[in-house]
Each structure stands twice: as C-alpha cells, then as structure tokens.
Amino acid sequence: MKGKRIKYLGTALCCMLAALSVWGCGASSGNEKVEIEIVQYKPEAAAYFAAVEEEFNATHDDIQLKISSPNDAMTILRTRFIREDYPDIIGIGGDINYSYFVDAQILADVSEYEGLKEINQGYLDIAESLELVPTQGTYIVPYVANAAGVLYNRDLFAEHGWKIPETWEEMTALCEEIKAEGILPFYFGFKDIWTCLAPWNAMAVELSPSDTAKQVNAGKTTFTKEYRELSEKYLQLLPYGPNDPFAYNYNDACTAFARGEAAMYPIGSYATPQILSVNPDLNIDSFVMPASDNKEDRTLNSGIDLGFCVTADCKNKEAAYEVLDFLLADENLQKYIDAQNAVPCKAGEFQLSSMLDGMLEFIQSGNMTDYQDHYYPSEMAVDAQLQTFLIEQDVDAFLSKFDTDWQRYNRDIIRLVQEYEKEHGNVKE
Amino acid sequence: MIKRKGNWPAMILLILGLSTIIFPLYMTIIIAFKQPSEMTNSIGGILALPKVWNLENFKEAMRVTDFWRSLRNSLLITLASVGLSLAVHSLMGYALGRNKAKSKFYNFVYLFIVSGMFVPFAILMMPLAKQTAEMGLANWFGVILLYVVFYMPMNILLYSGYLVNIPMALEEAAKVDGASTWTTYWKIIFPIMKPMHATVAVLTALAVWNDVMTPLVILAGSGQNTLPLAQLNFQTQFGTNYNLAFASYLLSLIPILIFYIICQKQILNGVVNGAVK
Amino acid sequence: MKNERKRTFLLITIPILALFVCFNTIPLIRGVIYSFTNFKGFGSYDWVGFRNYVDLFSDARVGKSYLFTFKLAIVTTVVVNVISLILALALNSKIRAKSFFRGAYFLPNILGALVVGYIFNYFFTYILPAVASMIGINSLSSSILSKPDSAWIGIMIVCAWQAIAMNTIIYISGLQTVPEDVYEAGGLDGATGWKQFRYLTFPLIIPFFSINMVLCVKNFLMVFDQIMALTKGGPAQSTESISYLIYNNGMSGGQFGFQSANAVVFFIMIVCISVAQMKFSGKKEEQL
Question: What DSSP assignment string belongs to B92-113?
Fold first, then answer.
C-alpha cells in the first residue's frame, strides 16, 4: 500500500519537475545580431509600428528590431521594471509617468544623440520642465505631439456662416448664436471622467501660467488663485452642451458629433479616427480654444504624445540610436502623422491632416503650451474631481479641495523640490 | 399533483427572467454583424437589424486576435488549470473537510487558505511578477500554477462544504476491506463528489477563461496571447471598435458555453449516480 | 490503520499548503512590507513607518469607498440570493426545456466586461429613459448612471444580473442533494409551498446557502470589473469601490505603498467578517 502511494507521489513530482524544466528554459537561443526591443504605449498605432519593424529588419542585417504595442502598456512596463527586465527603448507620452521614470533613474541620458538637434526646441523644453527637479541630461526624444482644442463641423459652420472665435467673448457669442438656430453648440461625454480634462486643459493654457503646478510645489502660489477664472469659465460652457452631459460617455459623444448632433466638440485631435469610423464623410476641422479676452494670450494646447526613451539598462546604445534614426526618418514620421493625425515634434516640412488646418498657424509658429494635467499625479484623480465639480458647480469647494489634495498626494515630490532648492539655491528665479 | 400545480408559475417566471437575457444577447449579436457606420445613439437605430448579414466582422476579428493560436493557448491554460484544480483542490478539500472539526491544526489551515480568497489581487501582482520571474516561472506553467493557487480557497470551501453531505460510513466500509485512505479517496470519495467537480470545473474554467490580469502581468513581454489578452486590442482609450469586439466576444463565448453544458449534465447525473443519502 | 490515515492526510496537506504559502502568503507578506513605504511601483522608495495607515483613516475618499462598497455588497447579496433561490427552485421543478433554460441563464456570466458595459450603458443612457418617459415615470427620465445618488443602483443591477447564474447553479446542486422522499414525507404532513421550503428544503441546503454567502461577499466586496465597465468610479466619485481604488491608484497610479496599506486593512476586515459569518452559519448547521 505504502509503496504504491510513494510511487504515485513520485510520479507526480517527476511530472512537475519535467514540466518545469521544459517550460522554464525553452526561450534562449544563440543569435549574433544585436537585439533592440521597443515597447510603446499607443496600441492604436500598432499597425504602423508593425510595418516599421518589418521594414527595419528587412534593411538592417546587424540589428534585430522587435516592437510591441500592447494594450495597457503601463501595467506591462511597470511589471517588467519590477522584475528588472527592461526593454531597450520605451515609447511613452510626456506626462507624469515620464517624470516618475526620470526620477527613478530608469531612463538613460540621450543628450549625445545627434537626432535631438532636429527636434523642435519647444518640445525639448516641455520635456525639460516635466522633470521633477532639474537634471543635466535629456531623457526623451519627442516624436509626435497632439493638440487639444475644439473640433468643429465644417459644413455646419459654412452653411450658417459662423466665424471661428478668437476670444472668450466671441466664443460665448458664437455659442449663443448657434443655440439660437436650434443647434446644440457643444457635445460632452463627461460620463467618461477623463474627457472632463479636455476642455479644462485647453482653456488652462491661456488662463493659468504653464508652470502652475511647479510654482505650487515651490510654495509660491495656490491653485485657488490660479484656477479660479478657469473654473468659473468652465462652468459657463455647460449650458451649451447636452442636457445631462454625465449620462454620455466618450463613445456616445463621438457618435453624436459624427451624426451632426452638435456643432462643436471640445476634445483632442486623437478623437477624429473614432468619429470618422461612424461617419467617414464628416468634414472636421479644429480651432484653438479661446479662453482669454486678450488675443495675446492665445496659445495652442499641445504636449508630447509619444516620445522614445532609451532605458538605462540598454546594452547597446549605438544600435538604439540607429533605430531612432530610422523612426525619425522623414518618410516614416510622415506615415505616422498620416495614420494618427498627429503633429510632428521634428522640424521640417510635413504634410499635416486637414483636420488641423485651424491650428496650423500656431503649430508653425511654435506657439504651444503643454497640458496642465501632465503634471497632475493620476492617483489624485483630478479628472474625477472635475466631474464632481461640474455636477455640484461649487467653485470654492472644488478649489480648496484641489489645494489640500495636492499637498497630500504630492508631498514626496514637494519635499524633493524643496530639498533641491535648499541645496542649489533658487536657481530658477 | 402538488408538483404539477407549481409548474406554470415557475414557467412564467423563467420566461420573464429570460427576457433580461435575450435582450442583451440580441443586441450583442446584431452589433457584431453591423458596420461602425451603422452605429447611432437613437434607439430605433441600435435595435434595427444590420443592413447586410455577413461574416466579415467575424473574419476580421479572427485575424486581429490571431484566433486559432490564442484559442489554443486559452484552451491549454484553462484545461490544465481545471484539471489540476479538480485533483489538487478536491484532495485538499477532503483532507481539511474530514479533519477540521476535530483538529485545531487542520481547522487553522482551512481558515488560513480560505481567507486567501480575500487578498486583493492588486497587492499580490507586483510581488508575484517579481517572484515568478526569479523562479523562472514567467511562462505558461507559472500562470497555470498561479491559477491553481488563486482558486484554491474558493474550491476548498466548495469541496469541504460538499463533504458534509457525504457520510463517513462509506469510507469506513472501505476501510474494513483493507483499503488505504489514499485508495479509498480515489475509488470512493472522488467519484461521489462528481456534482461538485462539475460545479468547481465551471467556476474555475469561467474565471480562468475570462481572466486578463494574470497572463498580462506574468507573461508581459513574451508575445504570447490568450483570447482575452488579444481582445484588448479592440479597445484603446481613444476609440473602440465595438463591432469587431462583439464579434470576437461571441466567438470566444462558444467554447466555454459548450463546456458548461457538458458540466451541467454532470451536475444532474451526479444525483442519480451518487444516491448520497 | 489510524496512523496510516493521519499520515496520508499530512502528506496531502503539507505540499499543497507549501504551494499556497509560496504563491499567496509570501507575496502577500511582501505586499505588506510595501505598505510601510512610499513605493510608487518602480524605482527607489523610503520607509515611512505607519504614515500610510494613519493617512488611510483620515482619507475621506477611502472612507467613502468603504461605505459605497459595503452598501453595494449587502444589497446585492440579498437581491442575488433571493432571486437565485427562486430561480433554482423553478429550474429544479418539473418543467419543460429545462436544459435550455439552464443554459440560457448561464449566459450573463460569460459575456465579457466590454460587452456587458456597452450594452448596459446603452440601456441606462438611452433605452430606460425613453421607456420611462413613455410610460410617464419622471424620476427615470434621465440616466440613472449620471446621478451620484442612483448610479450605485445601476451597478447593483449589473452585478446581480451577472452573479445570479453562478449562485443558481450552486443552489441547484444543493437542491439535488435533497432526496425526493423528504418531500413525500413532508407532503403527508401537509407541508406545501412556503412551509415546505421553510421547514424542509431550506434547512437541508444551508451548507450551500453559506457557500453562496461567502461567494457573494467575495464577489461584491471586491467588485471591480462592473465599475470599470459602467462608471469608472463616477459620477462625482460616488461609485469608487475599494478594489477600484487599490487597483487604479496603486497599480496604475503612483500610490503603490499607500494602496497596499489599504489592501491590508481591507483584507483583515473581510477575514474578520467571514470568520464571524462562517462561525455563525456553522453553528446553524450543527443545530440542524
């Protein structure tokens, strides 16, 4: 009896061990080529990157390129970081995650990379200011930017002879005019909380200093002071939207706008593919959201949508740079722009989507300001707080909560900044 | 007589309840056949039948998800997890269920494992990602092993709960015949728990089949996909192709539904075979 | 013989327990360790002692999420158990097309979160208000998911819709263990309908009732998928569940340490509730 039992257990154990060894070490194989792995966070551009991968590998004998465009790339990156399994290059956006990664010293300094010279200085400055505390190096090669403002239905505008507004006053006058004709001026999809940030960001660039968050961290100002006008104006937009904007999600809003149910939709250029999938014939253009009454304040809300960072762990920086050169080659970048309606970060002649016509002069003159929310920690859930504010419409409560929450969620950063300033004096002043 | 009287209210109730299932299913099916350009926000529009019935969406969905390969991976993981769960968990459920009333040690182990049900996965995720990589288990085998551990608390709860209804007399009879505990278990107890095996199999299979997070975290960067992982491709923050996604979900629903129907029969048959009490 | 039995049980228990400890307890302990740091999920971190725990009890958002989660869990548990018991009784009675019904009622459980989210969003946003205003119920003429007071009801409905299938299966397998002769004997005593259920059927399926209670507590206290599919915590942060906060702020956000502390407190809390619950229903089982 006993012998039999041991035999059973023994067999089971052997099976497990055998399985383990088969599963465990099946991967490694000898390869002389340098392998470069990219993980980039925009799954919507997966087709483009698959094509790039194929083309690169067909033309390069010494480097084997592997690009993955997973959904939920941030989770994948984080889990890979924790097991110290770093890809060579990561493609991420210029937001607070980038700031954290720089701070965590995961990224390598790429300031020696030649291709940086061709990048518009404006985007390098944006990248610089995203660093929690100033550093010596450059850690990202900005690839493309996005632009947020107001998308509008060109045909409707032409039909009624409406003019693109340039000041806040003109904006509200236009909304009244559209409303008077029995058309809904704006569509909102505030059920998806992140969409609450789109008009907020677009107006913030004109109404608040671009480094508001940094100034607050340094203890120089408060959000209550800097965001009051912005909050009040945001509330004034609400009556021009649908009755119960919190019932509709992003997808509903895109569909409604595509079906001509509203004249304008305050969202970024990234929404156009979804809108066009519903109605491919819609004639969309965009304009810069006017929030100030002063025309000199006008600026386009634009940030780094995708940039490439070489990780500190990358064994072969030269090969990584070669891959970056390939990605930044004019014809490849142009393909990306065509596919994603993006704005290139590289200087040079590129053909932009006609949906960006209304923003072209800002893009060409480099009159652009980064998104305010790129400085907000995601766990503070500013988007959800905005939604609460839009429902409850209490400016004071919103702003004071913003300030107290900010101090709480950012205390480690604030401490870091203050330590830095103590050490280096107030260099920035 | 009494029974037959109860039938009609039951039937009406079931049919009423059925409408809450038919309606969403109807929507899923018609959306799976429509084109994005047929999507509207009007009720008449969304409930209308598609303009043309063709299988283009299904073909495209199969291409995007690399259907056959993802299906094979999903099937492999699910079957292996279910098989191991049935063997390991029923055994453990037996050991704990038979002893927890008398022994403090077994009672503690029982509560210890069952309480594992309430550990939020989010807290385990990072440490597990690290640990599996260190142990060379960042692969299919690791994922299966993790499932066996994750569903252990729930399944042990189910098995030891079921054991309460199985009288000791059956085992004692075998013991008299000189069979060891181990043989008694496999020969007598294991077959008797058939209805519970079917329930556990359904629960485990369903959880494993639909799970995204474990393979996402453990297999990150390996390029291997399960069906739910591949289906993530349909949604991005800035746009979701519902038509393709729905077609793909309908496709992945079929295997698990078949599995359920097979198991459901076992749950029923068990009563006839078991004649427990 | 007695020793043989004991040894077999030990030989079974110890390796499986070791497996469990290795992939559940040890990572959990590592997680607990992180709860004493300001770890973001990557990079370096500092020890912060009990700061996270102190913060936890002063964080209004966390407090609100506990209230919401418990409210949702309690109501959904009651609704699900009542409905699935009725369904199980109906499905267990002698009716036609039994296997068809059993198959159909299982469907909600296997539809993916994306599908369920889309359909119910559509239902609550467009269909329900239209139907309500047609028959003149004003309180339902706008989406229930868009108002902070009523959004949880929408989530409750979807949770219940999905969970009923599983609970019904477990109740059915419980009802199968009730032998026919019990009913026959009961019939002779004149126990029919409610009385028959209350005094004959229900006592015999109490083990399955407690299994269902535990499953409900687990599923609804840890509700996550339905929140992501329906509201993403909105409107006005009224539907942020505990798991939602732990995942969103801990995994996707930079609060891994803090949310680990949250997870630890949450875990201890549910374990206490469940142990109490099991003790309670265990006593009941013994009594019968």
Answer: HHHHHHHHTTT-HHHHHHHHHH
